[in-house]
Amino acid sequence: MREIVAVDSVTKIYPNGVRANIDVSLRACSGEVVCIMGPNGAGKTTLIRQITGILKPTSGVVRVFGRDPVKHHNYIKRRISYTPQLPLTYPAHRVIEVAKYVAELSNTPFERVREVLELLGLWSSRDNLGYQLSLGQRKLLLLALALIKGGDLLILDEPTAFLDVFKKKLAWSALL
Predict the structure, then answer these.
(1) pTM of the predicted model, to two decimals?
(2) For 147, phi and psi rounded to 5 degrees?
(3) Cα–Cα dist 106/110, whole Å
């Protein structure tokens, strides 16, 4: 198996002095599913943001596909799909418009858009505007966009937060 993510002795201290993570190391190889667990405020989202290149570590080294994700942000973002922790919304756009846009950017056929939206129970909401979606539907839409985009690495930050028990099962089924 090929190493995809390498995190070595990473620490993040914010300008206000908050220590988000201290001396964290991990490895992830192709074909593996890695779960980062910990209590609220432990630095899980910060670590994910360091892996995606959104945040630069205070110290330590992060490599994704052998590259620094901050210095090679464009290369990394082309190869990964990322679902953030909070369910963002596209208030003035229809679900189908956002999904088609992501598909076009990633050269994904429309059949895949329909397949993913149906799989996650969003096809019947395809004409709804973002502001009309519940928090759970917004979270499912973000997951759908990541699956539509595809890529070599899927990073999910609390992928089932805001989902009811039935939608959680649906989301996990789509991922596994």
Answers:
(1) 0.90
(2) -70, -35
(3) 11
